[in-house]
Write a structure and sequence with these properties.
homodimer; mainly alpha; DNA-binding; 179 residues; elongated
DNA sequence: GTCTATAGTGGGATAGAC
DNA sequence: GTCTATCCCACTATAGAC
């Protein structure tokens, strides 16, 4: 299942797009089957003729989020500073989808094969090896989530924190990267 | 309000300790007013003679979490590697409390004054300036949350990712730290 | 494919008697 | 400070008629 707008006459795609809309503006808790149905002009139980359960919807949104974030990174160019900016910008532009896609457990079996790897590829290319790439990904994720949830203290210079993260990971590690 | 065990005859402290216990073993969703009351041997409505609402309980647990994490960092010694290890160990030892204390919005007005600053002090000392300290804190937070929620791919070397983070932040930045 | 009706579950919180 | 009785809310999901 996906949320392709081109097939919006399909009830499934319609529900998915609507869910995305509600998610973006009000968060996942606001996405209920009753509300989806109401806004589609049908009764809630009728949704279950099209969707197996609510989790199917969630999975589709998570996949869309990971995919879009990956596209943003692929479009950003190879240097770490640009990747960080792209990552941050995408996360802040749709904070609820970012949270949904990156928090909590992930049922990899229900996601498209290779989706995560493809999204992470630009970071791997920029950092040189898996371990540094994972550390940098985690750093970006930490900064993004803390910024989204307003966890930095009121006067904090968040731009500078992102810049410090980029600086830290730009320096080559002591031992040369694996051949 | 706090969760001091020494005053466990107090209903408030009793509820708080019990909540902590349930949180640690089953997560925040398992902490319900009904269940707390049941395990205390009273009826749910009676809880509201002692607690204003459920959020009061949550705030106390969040404060306890931040405080304990801070203690772990203060006990760890000054070097970044040791701090990272202490951070990771504490987070993994009580993942549910860690999540509760670090995810979602934080109502600073209801937290003890200076609690966060005190907890963050060791990182500030180790990193030299606020921006690097915030970046490193975010990196540790990202690694911890991703590890707790099982977000790293099955074969990932998580130890190595933590080590790469420490290495990245150990190098001094290009410009000398502010005098 | 839609409807009505409803099951089943869970939650937070309040009123008022004792 | 405890109780009983309840209210309110919300949700996912199913059964069966049309």
């Amino acid at each position: 299942m996906d949320c392709d707008p081109s097939m919006a006459e399909d009830r499934v795609a319609q529900a998915c797009l609507l869910a995305r809309q509600i998610l973006d503006t009000e968060g996942w808790d606001a996405v209920t089957m009753r509300r989806l149905a109401a806004e589609m002009g049908i009764q809630a139980p009728s949704l279950y003729k099209h969707l197996r359960d609510k989790d199917q919807l969630k999975t589709a949104l998570v996949a869309a989020g990971i995919g879009e974030l990956g596209e943003a990174l692929h479009a950003a160019g190879p240097d770490l500073a640009g990747l960080a900016t792209a990552y941050r910008r995408w996360a802040l532009a749709q904070p609820h989808l970012y949270d949904l896609a990156t928090s909590g457990t992930l049922d990899r079996a229900r996601l498209p094969e290779g989706l995560e790897d493809h999204a992470a590829q630009p970071l791997l290319d920029a950092l040189g090896d898996q371990d540094r790439a994972r550390a940098a990904w985690a750093a970006a994720h930490g900064l993004a989530t803390l910024e989204i949830s307003g966890r930095f203290p009121p006067g904090a210079d968040i731009d500078a924190a992102w810049a410090a993260m980029v600086t830290a990971f730009e320096a080559r590690p002591r031992r040369s990267r694996r051949a």
